[in-house]
Amino acid sequence: MKNETTSQQEFLFGKRNYLFMLIGIAFIALGFIFMAGGGSDDPNVFNEEIYNWQRIRLAPTLVIIGLGIEIYAILLNPKK
């Protein structure tokens, strides 16, 4: 007789881990969206908008926070 064992595929992380990963991805995407733009249509004209606080301070901060959330999501114990 054959000994059949049915093995169910299990996810590597728990539901909370994936939730935190999605939140981290959202922070990173939002940071890159804030970094976009600010260019000029005419290459001979300099646009000061590239140096506003949103691109210099807010966007990199959001990306770093998102990366921190991703690290937390990976290290979070799914059994708790």
SS-based structural class? mainly alpha
Average pLDDT number: 88
Strand content: under 5%
Number of helices: 2
Description of the molecule:
The protein has 80 residues and is an all-alpha fold. The protein has a domain at 15-39 and 46-75. It contains two helices and no strands. The longest helix is centred in the C-terminal third of the chain and has 23 residues, at 53-75. The protein is elongated, with a radius of gyration of 21 Å. The mean pLDDT is 88.
Keywords:
80 residues, mainly alpha, 55% helix
Helices, strands, pairings?
Layout: H1 15-35, H2 53-75
Helix pairs in contact: 1-2
Task: Give a nutshell description of this structure.
The protein is mainly alpha-helical.
